[in-house]
Write a structure and sequence with these properties.
The protein is mainly α. Helices cover 69% and strands 6% of the residues. The longest helix has 32 residues. The two termini are 42 Å apart.
Length: 536
């Protein structure tokens, strides 16, 4: 039944409709605006859950694919290949949406984190209409990134996330919000420029399809991901289309490096990480929940979808480099997290360390490692969203998240402290919680090929116990200040997302096949192509 409606388009565009509706509501009615935002966030989440329930891993997501042409531009044939039978050129911009075992887990993560962040917006106290309109616009961009199967459409959705995020940080953040927003835009803008250059190379060299006409061959260029994937798998693709331009070895390496850096900035990996520290420290908690929980995962998705799967030979050769970057991320983030005195910075450096584990999984280039990378991305998204939800709750009550200013809060906030301890244990990879599964699969996948790098990565993971327990115990135990004795416990609208995220973290920890079965089938065909190309 679900395949009879454009479910993917509904998931993408309902938040945009919500943004338009929000702009029509009275700006002074905060509860009405918040209710509208929660409703238009809940609907895509519900559709994503129904999609998950209807998805058949053995068949893939073909029955949910949506396609159409929204712009067709004829190109000049003066410098063409008329002598080889090519009579016309056309540039087509397609509307292509699709889902598979790689994107569906991240789609669910987006819906869950967005819903929890919508509930956490209770901490927003000014310019509600603008905030919720931008909040919903951001969701459209995030959903579009994980569903677009055309590189032009992917780029548009990717850029769509930058504008609302810039304003959400710059207007509703803390003291250094403007500097954080500017740095966010600078680094991500650089990454987008590199991505655009790589996509233009791919479209010009791989995006062609040939149609026989009465007068000869008509060439159409588009950004179809499936077309590019097919042409990369066929070394004779250029000859089969009358000698159309094809991706040479040098251009292939250039596109690979450009995309690796572009998505590496988004991930981020060292040394392109400083912008993320500012965002984590200065953005409002509900915005950081989305940034850490979802936006960083766009980098993970890009590395898997556009780097590993489009350029298997190149990433195979660079696997030691990617794995080394992962180890650097793990150790660098963990060591610096151990010495931070601001809890938000502890979490920021922890994110850098956990994204290093994702890099190890990708560098493994096998089913176990790639599953671990996606699983780690989903797990970290849930855990970081929960931790920053708690950060917002603590900051609203105490006005600080500095470890030296807090302490003994388990006496006045026992529920929040218990949730914080659970989230911390998940972050350090305690078995039985989701953090353990992603780390285990990523390291296990890498161990077959790069044993010493795996050992170094494991040492960095062990440091997580140091900075997590140090921070959590500093907040919840020890002497308590007099002004913290009468703090009020989390309200229902705060407690509900805390409980929901904690339940999901436990569920994925004890029942990981909810995601691994889905991803296992999603990677089957893609890994065969990967192995064939590397072997050839």
């Amino acid at each position: 039944m679900l395949d009879r409606i454009p479910v993917l388009s509904l998931i993408v565009w309902i938040p945009l409709l919500g943004a338009a509706v929000t702009l029509l509501l009275p700006k002074w009615h905060s509860r009405l605006l918040r209710g509208a935002a929660i409703f238009f966030t809940a609907v895509p989440l519900l559709l994503s859950v129904l999609l998950y329930a209807s998805y058949e891993p053995a068949l893939g997501g073909a029955k949910f694919a949506e396609s159409g042409t929204w712009l067709s531009v004829p190109l000049s044939t003066e410098a063409g290949l008329a002598d080889q039978g090519v009579t016309s050129y056309r540039l087509v911009f397609n509307y292509l949406l699709g889902v598979d075992g790689i994107s569906l887990p991240l789609l669910l993560l987006t819906g869950i984190v967005a819903m929890m962040a919508a509930l956490a917006t209770v901490h927003i106290h000014k310019r509600w209409k603008t905030f919720y309109a931008l909040f919903l616009l951001l969701q459209t961009g995030m959903y579009g990134v994980f569903l677009a199967r055309d590189v032009v459409l992917f780029f548009i959705f990717f850029e769509l996330t930058l504008v609302p995020m810039f304003f959400l940080i710059g207007i509703w953040g803390y003291f250094g919000r403007e500097k954080a927003a500017n740095r966010f835009l600078l680094y991500n803008g650089l990454g987008s420029a590199l991505m655009l250059l790589a996509f233009l190379i791919l479209i010009a060299t791989l995006g062609f399809s040939a149609t026989e006409t009465g007068n000869g061959t008509a060439l159409t260029y588009s950004g179809s991901y499936e077309t590019m994937l097919a042409h990369l798998a066929d070394p004779n693709a250029a000859a089969n289309t009358g000698g159309a331009m094809f991706l040479s070895g040098d251009l292939r390496w250039a596109a690979f490096v450009l995309l690796l850096i572009a998505f590496g900035i988004k991930l981020p990996f060292f040394p392109f990480h400083t912008w993320m520290l500012k965002v984590h420290a200065e953005a409002p908690p509900s915005v950081v929940m989305i940034h850490s929980g979802v936006l960083l995962k766009m980098g993970v998705y890009g590395l898997v979808r556009f780097v590993a799967l489009l350029f298997p030979a190149q990433i195979h050769d660079w696997a030691p480099v990617v794995a080394t970057l992962g180890v650097v991320n793990i150790l660098y983030g963990a060591v610096l997290a151990c010495v931070q005195k601001e809890f938000k910075l502890v979490l920021a450096y922890s994110s850098i360390s956990h994204m290093g584990i994702v890099l190890l999984g990708i560098a493994a280039l096998n089913e176990t490692g790639l599953e671990g990378a996606i699983y780690q991305a989903v797990s970290h998204g849930l855990i970081s969203a929960l931790l920053f939800l708690i950060v917002g709750s603590l900051h609203e009550r105490t006005g600080t998240t500095k470890l030296d200013d807090l302490g003994g809060l388990a006496r006045s906030l026992p529920f929040t402290s218990g949730i914080l301890l659970t989230a911390g244990l998940a972050s350090l990879g305690l078995p039985g919680l989701s953090g353990f599964v992603g780390e285990f699969l990523s390291l296990l996948g890498l161990f077959d090929t790069w044993k010493w790098l795996t050992v170094l990565g494991t040492l960095g993971v062990l440091l997580a116990a140091v900075y997590v327990l140090r921070s959590v115990l500093a907040i919840t135990h020890g002497p308590i200040r007099d002004q913290w004795l009468e703090l009020k416990e989390a309200r229902l609208i705060e407690a509900l997302p805390m409980v929901a995220l904690t339940a999901l973290i436990v569920l994925l920890g004890v029942y990981p096949s909810l995601l691994t079965d889905l991803m296992q089938h999603g990677f089957d065909g893609l890994l065969k192509q990967l192995q064939t190309r590397v072997g050839g």
